[in-house]
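Re: beginner question about structure tokens

> Can someone show what the tokenized structure looks like for a real chain? I only ever see the sequence side.

Sure, here's an example I had lying around. Input first:
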Amino acid sequence: MNNTSVKKGIVLAVIAAAFYAINAPVSKVLLDYMPPTLMAGFLYVGAGVGMGVIALVRKATNMKNTEATFSRSDIPYIIAMILLDIAAPICLMFGLSSTSAASASLLNNFEIVATALIALLVFKERISLRLWLGILFITLSCTILSFDDWSGLQFSFGSLFVLTACVLWGVENNCTRKISSKDPLQIVLLKGIFSGIGSIAVGFVIGEQITVVWSVFAVLGVGFVAYGLSIFFYVYAQRTLGAARTSAYYAIAPFIGTALSLVIFREIPHYTYFIALVLMLVGAWLSSRDKPLFKKSSDKLENNDL
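And the corresponding structure tokens:
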């Protein structure tokens, strides 16, 4: 793996982050018009439909496709990926309904912690000292953001839902990493269609209803950009960087989302938010400064164990 490939992976991870950044603030607005579980489903369906259109264009124009297809050994990871992608966005939407979009955007960076620890403990990826320090700062930031009232140590249950979503996506990131050598278009199609339909089914079963028709199309559009295009580029980035390092570069998304939230909602957060923001910036910077290690024998990319 050469340096050019690593730089390309970083660029793809940042593009993926930029697309995902619109999710929290725009979804927060749309939650006034659609209940959370149904919204989670339509977000993923939007991703699947968008990628389906791209697949049809690719086929109609006879574009050469050299991507590998799925094999039987991929099935467990595909099933896990779909189930986790049903649960995680539902948790995020419930979290958004009871916490600020700015705080939720920052809390999304806990996904770095979850992804890195699962990559270490389950999938045996190596984690550098820099990434460990980044994880520490991000965890401290998330702890501060998770309390509504520090004088009485009142915990925010909205934050708990967001953090749960991050853990689920951390597991999902590692499952996706196992099949990242396969066609990213197919991966997003599977995530979008099956995870989306699953979430919509859950929403209808628990009694949620669509009352504003135009909101369906708005959510589908957000899903195509924030989930479809984001996942598409994220998978390509994982091929080069691995699960832990890709999530570290992806950490720019919450800061973009936070900026959008402050512009859209025009609310000045509590001073503890800005303390958490500084800690999160330090953690994200440390995580993104993690360096690759090239094995002399196979030239295979791994995390630097400094």
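Each token stands for a local structural state, so reading them left to right follows the chain. Strands lie at 147-149, 154-155, 292-294, 301-303.
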